[in-house]
From TrEMBL:
This is Cytochrome P450. It comes from the Bacteria. It comes from Amycolatopsis pigmentata. Belongs to the cytochrome P450 family. Transmembrane segments: none annotated. InterPro entries: Cyt_P450_B, Cyt_P450_sf. PANTHER family: CYTOCHROME P450 YJIB-RELATED, P450, PUTATIVE (EUROFUNG)-RELATED.
């Protein structure tokens, strides 16, 4: 890439909408076209009239993610921050700077991140597996008699928040109430005005109950943590954990189920094939990462990445999907990549995902429980008819209709 394209973002025209790439039947080819035209950093459109830089190179993602002196996570530093006030904005949910670690920089980030790391370190893998399996079984019990189901809308969307709610000592009913309130607060749903109040009421009651009767769980870790200064910070840290992995987990579980049901290299294993569930989980992380793209920062000063002029106030989006295709980390032969976990799907730098280990347990148990409990499981529609949810951040199947002959 030369600097011949090094023009300010707002002077560039004819930009590809990012939704065209995530909605494309062949995103790999779409990323390749963008790379051919612009190099590893390309201008794209997030919404009509809202440009940003898409960082597609592995090295360049590392460069941006590890430099929080230049790239702030706080969108108050975005030149186009007023977009987030638009009630129809599709990027507001993820780009509005809420009061938790994900949107914090430097010292404030380190302070708010410490309880998250300590909470995850205190998780017991065995207990995470056991609780996730109980949640999965309860969800399956709701549809197993029908011998048909939609494994996205009836299953994958419910597992992640219920599983994380359990880390906080919430049972399935309480977890479901909190999950519903969080989804409403962060959706653009105009009917959800009372949702923030409901969420605060539920989390306050939960914290108070734990003050009286502490548990061996993440709520107690957060309540006692010297880094969290008040109830509001504790609540936001809980919301970050519950919501932080939500969309990514749905996508990972749904994609892996799709692969296990449609790709003969994997589906054959149940009948003696060679590749197993862990290989399928890894292949999805590589080829269809749960976060396709993610906001990576807002430039605090003019800088250059891969020959592009990133001006103060520009937004930068990290494309983990594109970076995983980067030839410098990726061989084109899937057989050579079995066991290779050098992907960048969990990010890198100070904001790297704190939950890679427990998130894998949840995804693995969620997929395994379906495959072992439902007999003769198969897709109820041709694989080519599966569409993705409309999003520029993930490429999650919108539905996975299945049929099965019985259950155990
Ligand atoms: C239970 C599941 C999960 C939880 C609780 C969770 C939690 C979090 C939290 C709290 C953060 C913010 C960290 C910070 O800003 O310092 C984060 C960041 C992130 N997570 Fe996760 N996560 C989960 C699953 C996943 C999965 C499955 C993926 C993809 C494979 C993923 C990828 C990421 C990425 C890419 C980031 C941002 C990294 C960066 O900015 O460089 N997460 N996650």
């Amino acid at each position: 890439m030369t600097t011949s394209h090094a023009r300010p973002l707002d002077e560039l025209t004819d930009l590809v909408p990012l939704s065209e790439i995530t909605g494309s039947a062949d995103p790999k080819a779409a990323f390749a076209r963008l790379r051919d035209r612009w190099g590893q950093v390309a201008p794209v459109e997030l919404e009509p009239g809202v440009p940003a830089w898409l960082v597609m190179g592995y090295r360049e993602i590392v460069q941006v993610s590890r430099n929080d002196r230049v790239f702030s996570r706080n969108s108050a530093n975005w030149r186009l921050a007023e977009v987030l006030q638009n009630p129809d904005s599709t990027v507001a949910a993820l780009m509005t700077p809420w009061e938790h670690a994900y949107y914090a920089d430097g010292e404030r980030h380190r302070r708010l991140r410490a309880p998250v790391d300590d909470g995850v370190a205190g998780l017991n893998d065995h207990e995470v597996s056991r609780a996730t399996q109980a949640i999965c079984r309860e969800l399956i019990a709701k549809f197993e008699d029908r011998c048909e189901a939609d494994l996205v809308t009836e299953y994958a969307v419910h597992v992640p928040m219920l599983a994380v709610a359990n880390w906080f000592g919430m049972g399935i009913d309480e977890g479901a109430q909190v999950a519903q309130a969080i989804i409403q607060v962060f959706s653009a749903d105009k009917d959800s005005q009372e949702a923030p109040e409901t969420l605060v009421r539920l989390l306050t009651a939960h914290m108070n109950a734990h003050r009286e009767t502490p548990g061996d769980d993440m709520t107690t870790v957060f309540l006692r943590h010297p880094s969290l200064e008040n109830d509001s910070e504790i609540m936001w840290a809980m919301i970050l954990m519950l919501a932080g992995g939500y969309e990514a987990m749905i996508s990972w579980i749904a994609q892996t189920l799709r692969v296990m049901l449609t790709d003969t290299r994997f589906s054959g294993r149940l009948r003696g094939g060679r590749l197993g569930l862990d290989d399928a989980l890894d292949e999805v992380l590589w080829r269809n990462p749960p976060w396709t793209n993610m906001p990576g920062g807002y430039a605090l000063s003019d800088t250059e990445v891969a020959g592009q002029l990133i001006r103060k106030g520009d937004a930068v989006i990290l494309s983990f999907a594109a970076a995983n295709l980067d030839p410098s980390v990726h061989s084109d032969d899937p057989w050579l990549e079995i066991g290779n976990r050098a992907h960048i799907s969990y990010g890198t730098g100070p904001h790297v995902c704190p939950a890679h280990q427990p998130s894998r347990i949840i995804a693995r148990i969620a997929v395994e429980t379906v495959l072992t409990r439902l007999h003769d499981l198969r897709l109820a529609v041709p694989a080519g008819e599966i569409t993705t949810m409309p999003s520029i951040w993930t490429m999650c199947p919108a539905s996975l209709p299945v049929r099965f002959t019985g259950f155990s």
